[in-house]
Design goal:
The protein is of the alpha+beta class. The protein has 3 domains: 10-59, SH3 type barrels (Roll), CATH 2.30.30; 209-479, no CATH class; 481-613, no CATH class. It contains 21 helices and 11 strands. Helix 20 packs across helix 21. It is an enzyme of class 1 (oxidoreductase). This is Delta(14)-sterol reductase LBR. Belongs to the ERG4/ERG24 family. Residues 66-75 have a biased composition (Low complexity).
Length: 614
């Protein structure tokens, strides 16, 4: 085992991660297992550094004194020899001149090496005092305080000391100096601080079981939806009993498909209305930012008004319940056709517009995960539209149709308490998503995943028809609950919603304005990317507190259905599996992106979703 080189309390020069800049730091501890030094900068920032990133102060002083004393003398002696030289000199003099010329080249080469080590000391940049361990809220990352960007822009302009040193030692030609000025322009510095990602390369690590797994999921996902809906219609909805298959002709009806197309078109019209603010998304791999119109909540209000008009004219909404399977088949057929269109158009998309996770070169895999990151028809963003509009708002409409169907079938003057709870809880969830629509722009669905069969089928089929399973179940299998039980379930849902919303709000608000005084007590671990990993607040409690809130709410949605069958709890079980998969993907992504900083974060926050359990 190699022995440590620097002792605790020793003042050394530590390299700032992701740069060539060295600053004065103090060694606070040493990890014998990971062989990492924990060092503390003058502003209080603590980082874990490798031994190769630490140098003694004496080595910097020695190199600076060498570069300041020896180089000028070498240049002056070279100039004097150059002036005394003449064409009539003997051959010996010329040989000595060639030897001196070689020495001068070696000295110049050495000077470049020495200056490259001395430059970080000359550049007067240090981590901002205001960024002391604050972060936007989630382990996935956020931008540093804008004060750091201002300091960086001011201190790295071309007229700084670094340019004077480079000119003094003649280390670059005029052409190279011009390039240097461009690099250190404010635009370039800002782009460097923001850490714009590179153009995506081929996807090497395949998810979902690779090509074979994605091929099977293309058939397994629709089959699962149809199986759940058929089982839910049975008198004994047991998952162990396979329901009888209906006639193929009964699964398709042209009128139902027309209603679905009308619904999709109506939501598209609401999306295109010039209402709501326009915001920019996160930078794309090519540095460009797309614009999005935030009007999902307005679309929900307009949809509610349209439904109210239909009810006023006594249009039977329980038509949805009577033809529920046909609607699911229509949505599945439409999502398949949309997926084929998306893949065909992605073949002509530029390389920088392809999805980082769907550019494997394998047809089936890229078709499933999505080959193009943000497919658009003009300003109409197909992925962003489908993410919240047709499926999520359709989920609420389906729940309402189930409530009306329950009242009609069971001759009730008002819906059952169980149905009211399910509708209310899920309505709150949908309204919250639409009200906080801007937050979806930072999710992996938008920033990382392409738009292919997985998201198209998930948004248009899985969300509206599987998430409404509890309401569909209660129509044919009513479950009476008492008011105290209803109150307890309501409290449970409120707890889950509070964790979910406060954790996400902490993340999103801090991302927009990290200098807000209400976040002054939040601490984070700095990373080499210029971002941070929060270790206080909800994100210091578990690594994914929003997932914890999601699971608690999913349980509250299922409890009103009772315990006679496990079918109503399928959504909760599926949701846990989905979140565990997402959590594992997030862990892998963050470990690759943040390296040692992520390992330190995991040590500080050991629990992933469930405190003291997982």
């Amino acid at each position: 085992m190699p022995s440590r080189k620097f002792a605790d309390g020793e003042v050394v020069m530590g390299r700032w991660p992701g740069s060539v800049l060295y600053y004065e730091v103090q060694v606070t501890s040493y990890d014998d297992v990971a062989h990492l030094y924990t060092v503390k900068y003058k502003d209080g920032t603590e980082l874990a550094l490798k031994e190769s990133d630490i140098r003694s102060q004496s080595s910097f002083k020695h190199r600076k004194s060498q570069s300041s004393s020896s180089s000028p003398s070498r240049r002056s002696s070279s100039r004097s020899r150059s002036r005394s030289r003449s064409p009539g000199r003997p051959a010996k003099g010329r040989r000595r001149s060639a030897s001196q010329s070689r020495e001068h080249k070696d000295d110049k080469k050495k000077t470049i090496q020495e200056t490259s080590l001395a430059l970080p000391v000359l550049v007067l940049f240090k981590p901002s005092e205001n960024n002391t361990k604050r972060y936007n809220g989630e382990p996935e990352s956020t931008e540093k305080n804008d004060t750091s960007c201002i300091i960086l822009e001011q201190k790295l302009k071309p007229d700084l000391e670094i340019k004077r040193v480079l000119e003094q030692y003649s280390l670059r030609s005029r052409k190279d100096e011009k390039k240097k000025e461009e690099i250190y322009s404010e635009k370039k510095i800002f782009a460097t601080v923001k850490t714009v990602e590179k153009v995506p390369s081929k996807t090497k690590e395949l998810e979902f079981g690779g090509r074979i797994g994605t091929f099977m999921l293309i058939f397994l996902l629709p089959a699962t939806v149809f199986y759940l809906l058929l089982t839910c219609k049975q008198d004994d909805p047991s998952l162990m009993s396979f329901p009888p298959l209906p006639a193929f002709e009964s699964l398709w009806e042209g009128r139902v498909f027309g209603v679905f197309l009308l619904w999709f078109s109506l939501q598209a019209v609401f999306y295109l209305l010039p209402i709501g603010k326009v915001v920019e998304g996160l930078p794309l791999p090519n540095g460009r930012k797309l614009q999005y119109r935030i009007n999902g909540f307005y679309a929900f209000i307009l949809t509610s008004a349209a439904i109210g008009i239909l009810l006023y004219f006594q249009v039977e909404l329980h038509y949805l319940y009577d033809h529920f399977m046909q609607f699911a088949v229509s949505a599945a057929a439409f999502s398949l056709a949309l997926s084929i269109y998306l893949y065909v158009r992605s073949l002509k998309a530029p390389e920088e517009e392809l999805a980082p996770g769907g550019n494997s070169g394998y047809f089936i895999y890229d078709f499933f995960t999505g080959h193009e990151l943000n497919p658009r028809i003009g300003s109409f963003d197909l992925k962003y539209f489908c993410e919240l509009r047709p499926g999520l708002i359709g989920w609420v409409v389906i729940n309402l149709a189930m409530l009306l169907a329950e009242m009609k079938i069971h001759h009730l003057s008002m819906p059952s308490l169980s149905m009211i709870l399910v509708n209310s809880f899920q309505l709150l969830y949908v309204v919250d998503a639409l009200w906080n629509e801007e937050a979806i722009l930072t999710t992996m669905d938008i920033t990382h995943d392409g738009f292919g069969f997985m998201l198209a089928f998930g948004d248009l089929v899985w969300v509206p028809f599987v998430y409404s399973l509890q309401a569909f179940y209660l129509v044919g299998h009513p479950n009476a609950i008492s008011w105290p039980v209803a109150a307890a379930i309501t409290v449970l849902n409120c707890i889950g919603y509070y964790i979910f919303r406060s954790a996400n709000s902490q993340k999103n608000n801090f991302r927009r304005n990290p200098a807000d005084p209400k976040f002054a007590n939040l601490k984070f671990i700095p990373t080499a990317t210029g971002k941070g990993l929060l270790v206080t607040g909800w994100w210091g409690f578990v690594r994914h507190p929003n997932y914890l809130g999601d699971i608690i709410m999913a349980l509250a949605w299922s409890l009103p259905c009772g315990f006679n069958h496990i079918l109503p709890y399928f959504y909760m079980i599926y949701f846990i599996c989905l979140l565990v998969h997402r959590e594992a993907r997030d862990e892998h992504h963050c470990k690759q992106k943040y390296g040692l900083a992520w390992e330190r974060y995991c040590q500080r926050v050991p629990y992933r979703i469930f405190p003291y359990i997982y």
